[in-house]
Structure formats: C-alpha cells, structure tokens
Amino acid sequence: MSISESYPPAFRRVINDGDPLATAEAESVLVQGKDINIPAIDMERLDKEILREACKEWGIFRLENHGVPLALTSRLQEISESLLSLPFENKRELFAAVNSPLSYFWGTPALNRSGDALKRGAQASNVAMLEGFNVPLSSLSNLPTSTSCDNDADQEPKLESFRVLMEEYGRHITRIAVSLFEAIAQTLDLELSGNRRSEYLSESTGLMRVYRYPRSSYQAAGEALGMEVHTDSSVISILKEDESGGLEIMKGEEWFCVKPVANTLIVNLGDMMQVISDDEYKSVTHRVKKKNWKTERHSVCYFVFPKRDYVIKSSNYKPFAYSEFEAQVQADVQSLGTKIGLPRFNPNSPLFL
Questions:
Q1: How many Å apart are CA 296 and CA 111, to the nearest integer?
Q2: Are the C-beta atoms of 115 and 102 separated by less than 8 Å?
C-alpha cells in the first residue's frame, strides 16, 4: 500500500503534487514564528509563584518530572501511528461499530460531542491537513470487542492495545490535570470546598485526541494547512508531541515556535480557565505549522472541561454553563466557519449575543 492511500482523498493532491492556491494563501497570511522558550514547571517541586507567572503572562508552560512512564508514551505513540497508517477506508470503518465511543475525523479539529466533524460554514478556510481519533476516556470501557472493518482479525488486537494504553495514559494525565488545577486554584485564592473542584474541572469530561499531520512533497502548501489559529475551549489541555515540532503560540502580536523537548508535556490554559480566573489568566492563542513536511507529525492531547450544567459566574462575562458555550461554538463554526468563543459571552464585546 502506498502511504498516500492512508490519507483522506482530499489530502492526496497536496501531498503528491501541491496546491498553488494554498501556496499563495500561505505566503500572504502565515508568518514563521521565532523560536522561544516557554516557562518550565517541575511537577515534583511545584513552585506556585512560577506557576502563577506562567499562567498570567503566557497561558502555557512545559511540565517536567510529570511521572508518566516513558515506556507508556512510546508504546502509545507506536500503536497510534500504526492505526493511523491503515488505509483511509479501514480507519473510517474501524470505529464505526454501533455504540463505539471512539471516532475518526479528518480535515478539521472542530468536532461535536460525539466526536464527528462539524460541517463548516461557507466562510471556512481551507481543509486542515490533519486527521485523528477522538477518545472520550470515561467511555473507553464500552469499546465494542468487534468492529465492522474487513480486516477485523488483524486490527482488533491493535484496537484493544490502543484501548488499554489509552486507559493507562488517561489515568496519569487526569491525575496531572487535577493536581495542576488545584495548584492554579490556590494561586487565584479560588474556593474548592465540597464539590466545587469537580464543578470547575470534571474528570468525566476528559477526552483524548490523537492527531496525525501528514508528510508532503510540497512544503509551502502544507504550511498553509496545519491546525488553524484557535484557543482551546477547555479548562486545561495537556499535549504530548513528537520531536517534529510545529506548535506555535501568539504572545503580544507575534508568533513564536515552541520547540519540542523530550519527555516533557506541554500544558496550556483554555477558555474556561480564563473565565474562572476572571481574565487574570489567559487562554493561549496557538496553531500548528510544521516546518519539516518530509516527516509526519504525531501528537496526543488531553482536554478537560467543567461540569456541563455548572453555571460559571465572572464579572467580565454573563453567567453561562459550559453546555451553552459549547453549543454557541458549534453554531458559529457551522454558520461562520470559525469559532468566536468568549467574545460571545462578554457584554463589552461587539460580538456579544
């Protein structure tokens, strides 16, 4: 099988031949970021002042000594790459079993609650050059023991290994997310008594997304079509990436490249943390724009959210539950082609609804 056959058909022209229109857009819109070192937080000796500064000035930091076994992350990357390298049609069928909680997506990171790609409005930009699996952690134990894929006998052991590894990795990442949130809450003097912590950050909402950004023989076109500029809707997002790099953040009015560092995690704050902190901490604006398109880029990202029906109150935003925010984001993506996010809930914003 040619490697291009594992990619969605819409990717293949760019991968093999390039797309001059995408190239023109890349040259006119995208500016290469400068390399930058983001703050580092040592999980074993967590310094609250360094954490506060990282959240306030950056919205992103690198996590060292996080306690996730290297053998686990290596094996998870190996099995994820193996599944994503299957023929495109096989991947589409692999998670299509009735009631399977896992889903396969491509061309956009904008998904609904079921993990299906949202149909985007006419104003949407070009198809994003990424694909992946959406994995809600609380539903992994419900993964069917058989699939509809023609090569069941070959793929079921891989899928079971993927499930087991995801569950183990998910336990580690959930532990990290809870510990970090509690530490961040202390820097904000946020009251977490009773059920308040699980209202702000509900472990049951945790999900993983496994991403693959394809290689391309046409570099400029590929640079135009990575992960688009966005903020995460989460409270906290935790990224494990390979060594190929490509993550860029906006600080001030400039783009900066975040270089990968072995055996570390990248933690960024999402929109819900910005609201919870009453804008003291910021949801970082970021994108993925690979420099080297001779190799694929693989990453795994964990997202966690507030309890869906918990109403968050802030002096800068109208009170809202995460379910309202999610519905508004999806409506904007479907009608406008892009996420608007927090300005929809800020009475001082011209985009307020």
A1: 22
A2: yes
